[in-house]
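Please check the following for our workbook:

***
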Amino acid sequence: MLHRLSRRALSVVVAAAAAVLPSLVLPSPAAARAQVAGFAAACPTAGFVSDHYGGARNHDGVDIANNYGTPIFAVGDGEVIASGPAQGYGQWIRILHPDGTVTEYGHMSQRDVAVGERVTAGQRIALMGAEGEADGPHLHLRVRRDTSMNRGIDPEPYLAERGVTLPCTPGARPGPAPLVHPAESGRVVSARSADGRLEVFAAAADGVHHAWQLQANGAWSPWEQLGGPGGAELAIAPNADGRLEVFAINGKTFQHRYQMSPSGGWSGWEGFGTGGRDTAAGVNGDGRIEVFASGPEGVFHRYQNAPNGGWSQWEGTGGGPVGARLGMEKSSDGRLEVFALNDKVFRHQYQTAVNGGWSAWGEFGEGGRDLTVDHNADGRLEVFASGPEGVFHRYQSDRGGWSGWEPTRGPANAQLTSDRTADGRVEVFAANNDVSVHMWQTGVNAPYGDWTAFGAGGSEITAATNADGRLEVFSTSGAGVRHKWQTGFSTWSEWSWVNATAGPVIP
């Protein structure tokens, strides 16, 4: 979801516009870092990956090999909850991080930290060795979803989502996280530019309108009319170099535009295909954007041939529901998954390998009105769908399969959106013509509480995350586009117009 052209003369507006958020109370930078899930990680050690997660040996972690005495560093801030002898490891260290995950380090020749100590990302905690069951000096790095001793999750996508790609160089600043989760698509979309500012796009009858934060976590610009397809469905995704790209489709045309530089000005609209019903965009593990579009003949897709590069031709996906609403997410190993819902059927398909081809469409449920897809803190996908009987959801089990559909009640025939709170809990928002409500997980990876009133009804709703981890929600109606934001990490502002003006009308 996303972005803009010149910002000249906006410096005059910044001071006055800041008054739009008078009740905004931000935590200190240290407190914000402590609460944000998906922390910026540090490189654990130098070396080459000698054994990946899984495989024929069902390897529970990743091995990074190097010489005896190579320094080992904490992946992130946290508390040391184990440091000492361990069966198989010889010696180990376990660190509990603020998002609830635990990293384990094994086979070291020397430990530099003790139980109860607080460590910071990039702090040296040990020296590499070959203690325990090891053929040579290496770090065995394992990641667990919590403090339990259940099987770990793959450390490589875990690190990638936090900005570290193996092999890595200790002390280097984290790069853009390759594991980019798709933004919600719809008639209003929002996403962050490379500098952390939220941008919002809204598709009215006269084309696409755009507003942006004047600074990260701050006040908003006036609305800007961009032209483009009228009454469109929108999607947005970042290029590998951080430039946002926005896609707009209506029944007659499909166009896109993109930032000319990260956080910078935008190109004009360019043709991208013929018209259709809906679109969704996501980013492959290698940084290439992939776009799906639905229409009367099913679902089609096209993708960048290289990161930041040109595009393939449109290709069929083997069918898919006609005239479908589309949703995308990324599994914990980096594979994209697409969900397609119309009023009769619900189907999905997924990449059979990271950056690879696609499975056949599989049945996923009955038809409905709208859908939203998100990921739990442990990487499991969760899908919500609305219909005449309310909102239902299903989720991946620990073994990768799916639960059955479960009712959540909620408003009938609602528009849906979701995002993750700063501590990693999924929060879901639903709006129909009469009411807006939301519900959230009672704990990380946990069940949901009851639906709670969130405001008056609306025609569209979308959620995004500020640079400091606070959620911000945009809702549209025949009166304009309004927004509501977390004033802390558990309290909300009142609804207000973006930049105190109603903006585009989206009935």
